[in-house]
Write a structure and sequence with these properties.
This protein is α/β, with parallel strands linked by helices. The protein contains 21 helices and 14 strands. It folds into 2 domains: 15-110 and 242-456, D-Maltodextrin-Binding Protein, domain 2, CATH 3.40.190; 112-236, Periplasmic binding protein-like II (D-Maltodextrin-Binding Protein, domain 2, 3-Layer(aba) Sandwich), CATH 3.40.190.10. Helix 2 (39-46) crosses helix 14, helix 14 packs across helix 19 (367-376) and helix 15 (277-287) runs antiparallel to helix 16.
């Protein structure tokens, strides 16, 4: 019996070795920022998904903010990293570092908030703001700014706000929200980058009036009663892309099996996170550890477990889609999502040359590699990497705008407040392509967590 067991064990060992033999590099370092949406990377480590695929991964908390993450990916100190969705695009375009980086998968949808301090909230309330309205627009802020302009005249002092990085979703969301009521972010305000964990201290110190950041750094201020979260990015754009898993393109080419193994581990972690609210509670406990997010479990649970507390001193409100990791194709790197970031780089004057947006995004986003990895872990795929945003339930913009990648150039110039440095004519000449878009159904194949309603759980 013992001989038979040993023989069986040896056989299984040989099979495992054979399965993992193609992994070119097993010892890896993956960087992350202390935010709840690092959860897929942390869970892949803590629940053994990396180990399952033969990987020895050191998950490293980056203290230098997003610039530190980017520098270390480009230099090769990090093999992969948690990244803002705009970072690999910007680096490839040469406006945020200068390296060909790739987005291998989307880590999540949503997850951010715009939080303002008590002082500016009082001023906005004078101009009719109702904090309980969902979604809450920026009209009262516009009225306050107009009054401030009138009172100060030529000596007008712009209001100071924080975001995490110039090419972050947070920067674009804060600007989108402000501009929807006619605020001109580059004239009426000053928007500065800060590392996410420092946002609360900067607000309390009076360096900024408010900020846009991921969790748990909104709820920290709300629970301290130093301010309130006025709007989440789900309110601004339902199920919007947030973070990605990025790597250098030459690393991906040199180590294809390693890359696939990492992707499979992270996708499995994403499915685990959306399988149940109990898993989310367990994740909150794991993330609370000092080597990860280092925040109280009760703060992390405020957003991770289907609720969100917008207002100081009030109860949490239902918000099941505040974090979505796997459901509704949240792990899939849509080309159209990547291109949206390029439209914002143009809208706000960050790109000063006309580029073929389709060509750029197809160099950076890798739905082809994702499809290979997803097939091996039974993650379902959408009908196309190109889709239209703003037309489907659970995928609307707060201002009713529609983003169609085939009309990306027109989209940039369709806003009342827009500040491009490249002409529409130049961009039209560089973008003569068309793509076939297909709309994915709203589905929750992996469980109730992150799902709009249990009726969608398959």
């Amino acid at each position: 019996m013992l001989k038979k067991a040993l023989k069986l064990g040896l056989g299984l060992s040989l099979v495992t070795t054979a399965l993992l033999a193609d992994i070119e590099k097993k010892k890896l370092k993956i960087g992350f920022i202390a935010l709840t949406d690092c959860a897929p990377i942390v869970i892949a480590k803590e629940k053994g998904f990396f180990e399952k695929y033969g990987l020895d991964v050191h998950v490293a908390k980056e203290g230098g903010g997003w610039p530190g993450i980017q520098q270390k990916v480009i230099s090769g100190e990090y093999d992969f990293s948690h990244a803002l969705a705009g970072m690999p695009i910007a680096a490839t375009l040469g406006i945020n570092g200068n390296a060909h980086l790739q987005a291998l998968l989307s880590l999540d949808f949503n997850g951010n908030g715009i939080t303002y301090g008590n002082n500016i909230i009082k001023e906005m309330e004078k101009y009719g703001m109702d904090q309980t309205k969902r979604p809450l627009g920026s009209e009262s802020l516009k009225k306050y700014i107009d009054a401030k302009h009138q009172a100060e005249g030529a000596n007008y002092q712009p209001l100071n706000f924080g975001m995490v990085h110039p090419v972050s979703t947070h920067n674009y969301e804060l600007r989108y929200w402000m501009a929807s009521s006619g605020i001109k972010p580059d004239e009426d305000t000053t928007i500065k980058p800060f590392p996410p964990p420092t946002m609360p201290s900067n607000l309390i110190a009076g360096n900024i009036e408010g900020y846009c950041v991921g969790e748990p750094w909104n709820e920290r201020i709300v629970l301290k009663k130093k301010g309130s979260t006025l709007v989440t990015n789900y309110d601004i754009w339902n199920n919007n892309p947030e973070k990605v898993l990025q790597a250098r393109a030459d690393f991906v080419e040199k180590y294809p099996e390693t890359t696939k193994a990492v992707m499979k581990a992270v996708i499995e972690a994403q499915m685990w996170l959306d399988e149940s609210w109990e898993h989310r509670k367990e994740a909150a406990k794991i993330l609370s550890k000092p080597n990860y997010v280092k925040a109280p479990v009760k703060v992390l649970e405020k957003s991770m477990t289907g609720t969100f507390q917008y207002l100081k001193g009030q109860d949490s409100e239902p918000n099941p889609m505040f974090n979505v990791f796997a459901n509704y194709y949240a792990a899939y790197p849509f080309y159209s999502h990547g291109m949206w970031f390029i439209t914002q780089m143009y809208r706000w004057g960050q790109l000063d040359k006309a580029v073929d947006m389709k060509e750029v995004i197809e160099k950076v986003y890798r739905p082809d590699l994702f499809a290979e990895a997803a097939k091996e872990v039974n993650y379902s795929l959408p009908p196309s990497p190109w889709k239209i945003d703003g037309v489907d339930e659970y995928n609307k913009f707060m201002d009713g705008k529609v983003y169609d990648p085939n009309k990306a150039v027109e989209y940039i110039y369709s806003f009342d407040v827009t500040n491009p440095t490249v002409s529409k004519e130049e961009l039209m000449k560089a973008n003569t392509w068309t793509v076939t878009t297909k709309q994915p159904d709203y589905v929750c194949p992996y469980g109730p967590a992150g799902c709009a309603d249990p009726k969608y759980v398959q």
